[in-house]
Amino acid sequence: MTEQPAITTRTAGGVRTILLNRAERRNAVDLAMLREYYAALAVAEDDPAVRAVVVTGVGGTFCAGAAPELLDDLSGTDGRAALLEGLGHPPHLPLLMRKPVIAAINGSAAGVGLVLALLSDVRFLAENARLSTVFSRLGLIAEYGSAWLLPRLVGTANALDLLLSARSVDAAEAQRLGLVQRVVPRDDVLAEADAYAATLAAECAPGSLAVIKQQVLTGWEQSLPEAVDASIRLMVESVSGPAFAEAIQARADRRKPDFPSGVDTVGAGHLRVTQAEYRAKRDET
Prior knowledge:
The chain is of the alpha/beta class. The chain folds into two domains: 7-201, 2-enoyl-CoA Hydratase, Chain A, domain 1 (Alpha-Beta Complex), CATH 3.90.226; 205-284, no CATH class. It contains 13 helices and ten strands. The protein has helices at 31-46, 68-74, 79-87, 93-96, 112-118, 146-154, 156-165, 171-177, 189-203, 206-219, 224-239, 242-253, 275-284; strands spanning 7-12, 15-20, 52-57, 61-63, 101-105, 108-110, 122-126, 130-132, 169-170, 182-184. The strands form two sheets. The chain has a six-stranded mixed β-sheet with strand order 1-2-3-5-7-10, sandwiched between helices. Helix 6 (146-154) packs across helix 7 (156-165) and helix 10 runs antiparallel to helix 11. The radius of gyration is 19 Å and the shape is globular. Keywords: Isomerase. One of its GO terms (molecular function) is isomerase activity. This is Enoyl-CoA hydratase/isomerase.
């Protein structure tokens, strides 16, 4: 029998849905599967027909974490190089993307599986799912940038609690902490996430989505005056841009706007970290 692809995709209404497709091992990822996943994200980023991305798992689990093969790849002296080169893209690629990434967490997520979900911009969670960092219970550290990401999502004390204890968190607590934004019945998770992404694709300007996303992320490292100054500069650009003109005309015509498909129309291009820039910075460390 032909082995099923580890990653599958489908596109409808401007939304690219990426599925982790290893249900028989609860979508645990090895390096090859991670490489396919990041490649699918990069393809979606560069496809002008795609305006939003949804990520989900096949079966009853979103992602159980690292497969044994991935841990074997990392155990050697060249483990860091194997991971960074093997992925083919920055591990935090979803945050660098100009298009919104929505996680439809259809079941439990642990370790790197949880990190993949947290790297998304908005998260929908099945009401029966549980989340865990799991790292400390395996003698590991806070992997894949989770020690940087979690405090910004849930605060320092909550991040330390989740990372130090590696305890399992249910859906209600995950929403209360801010790990996820929506909790819905398991059978509705993907449909709800797809509908949300479809609304972004149909009703929001791609350039605006790109710039807003990067404003929020770069704002984590800016002072308030720097963030305000940047927003004023970008505001002036956007008021003069084609998307704003189309939005005003559509309101006058009482119709839905037909926004330009490009995401560089409001200055998004210069905000994005390129693969070459990432590699240059990585090689300096």
